[in-house]
Design a protein that fits this description.
By secondary structure, the protein is of the alpha+beta class. The protein has helices at about 5, 10-20, 30-45, 50-55, 60-65, 75-80, 90, 100-110, 160-170, 175-180, 200-205, 210-215, 225-235, 285-320; strands spanning about 25-30, 70, 120-125, 130-140, 150-155, 185-190, 195-200, 245-250, 255-270, 275-285.
């Protein structure tokens, strides 16, 4: 981080930037000038900013030039090939293609409504000119909710995940529609063990929503005490060792553990290349409880029967002695 900038920032900002140097691209923007410009437009009578920006797309460019990037982590600078943070403003917007403007428009609309919390998927160019699909999130720092003078942004490259999902949908177009509505827990993960498909039945089972699950490691679904062994089984399932009626526990948000019988299959693209794995489960928790209860009941009956046999044997001895 630039020392002059660091000296002008509260510790929470610089600590956050440093902490995330090993994570996604992150940066801090000063959007106070943008907010001021939007407030000015409101004073001029603009009420519907979506309609306004659609009629005046040049206003998007004006607003974009009002953004001031206060600081950024090394991943951000390396991705855009910026060697000096002072040059961010000269170079940064050349990496955002025209396709990114609708997402920026939506961000401005949110700002006009007093909300700097934002989430969007957009395309940006890397150093080689290739388009990357990224998920961008933003949130204002405490104390800056009204001015938006300090807004924290994070950016995750989801290009490979989207490609995998597209391949999955191409290969399983009809099944994919069926999966989302069928009342059986089904999810799929890519070669990096990240969840790429997650239907409503497994969301109901775990209490973890689709938004919380997609893109996360599958270990999120398993109880900690079973995590290593379970993860190993699902890893093997990714390498052609399919799960076949394999009993594996799954974690609920409530803290309860459910027992699921899993089957899995490898998913391939049109070239026959493996792109992920899909698994379907059957909740057998109640059946397992019933079986365990029945086994205990049978065991108790056997113990009682043994006791009765012992009493019967003793009575026979007594009768013989009379």
């Amino acid at each position: 981080m630039n020392k002059e900038m660091k000296s002008g920032l509260p510790d929470v900002f610089s600590d956050l930037i440093s902490f995330t140097d090993n994570a996604d691209m992150v940066w801090i923007e000063d959007l106070s000038a943008v907010k001021g410009y939007l407030d000015l437009k409101k004073d001029e009578g603009v009420q519907d900013f979506r309609n306004y920006f659609n009629k005046h797309p040049e206003e998007l460019i004006i607003c974009r030039r009002l953004i001031h990037i206060v600081d950024a982590n090394t991943h951000f600078l390396q991705f855009f090939g910026i060697h000096e943070i002072d040059k961010i403003h000269e170079d940064i917007f050349s990496f955002f293609p025209i396709e990114a403007l609708p997402a920026f428009r939506d961000e401005l609309i949110a700002l006009s409504e007093g909300d700097a919390g934002f989430k969007a998927i957009l395309s940006i160019k890397d150093l080689t000119g290739n388009l990357k699909e990224v998920e961008v999130r933003s949130t204002p720092f405490p104390g800056y909710e009204k001015t938006f003078a300090r807004v924290f942004f994070s950016c995750t490259d989801i290009t490979e995940r989207l490609h995998t999902m597209h391949d999955l949908c191409d290969s399983w177009a009809i099944i994919n529609r069926f999966i989302r509505c069928v009342n059986v827990p089904i999810f799929a993960w890519d070669l990096n063990m990240k969840i790429i498909l997650y239907n409503s039945a497994i969301a109901d089972l775990t209490g973890i929503s689709q938004d919380e699950a997609i893109g996360k490691d599958i270990s999120r679904l398993f109880p900690e005490k079973h995590e290593d062994s379970t993860y190993e089984m699902f890893t093997k399932a990714s390498m052609n060792e399919s799960l076949k009626l394999t009993m594996i526990p799954i974690h609920q948000r409530s803290g309860d553990i459910r027992t699921i019988l899993w089957n899995s299959a490898r998913v391939t693209n049109t070239k026959g290349e493996g792109i992920g794995t899909i698994a379907q489960g059957i909740d057998i928790t109640e059946q397992k409880w019933a079986k365990e209860y029945l086994n205990r009941y049978i065991s108790e009956l056997r113990e009682k029967n043994d006791e009765l046999e012992q009493i019967k044997y003793q009575l026979e001895i007594i009768n013989q002695s009379l």
